[in-house]
Amino acid sequence: MSQPAFRPRDLVAEDEILTGEAVALDLQPLGVGMRALGGLIDLVIAYLLLFLAMWAAGSLADAGVLDQGTVQIYQVTAIVVVFVVIPVAVETLTRGRSLGRLAAGARIVRSDGGAIGFRHAFIRALVGVLEIAMSLGGIAFLVAMFSPRGQRLGDLVAGTYSERTRAPRLPEPAPGVPPELAGWAEVADAARLPARVDLRVTRFASGAARMDPAVRARLAAELAQEVAPFVSPLPPVAPELLLQGVAAIRRDRDRTALRAQAERAARLAG
Question: Which pTM does this prediction carry?
Answer without folding.
Answer: 0.56
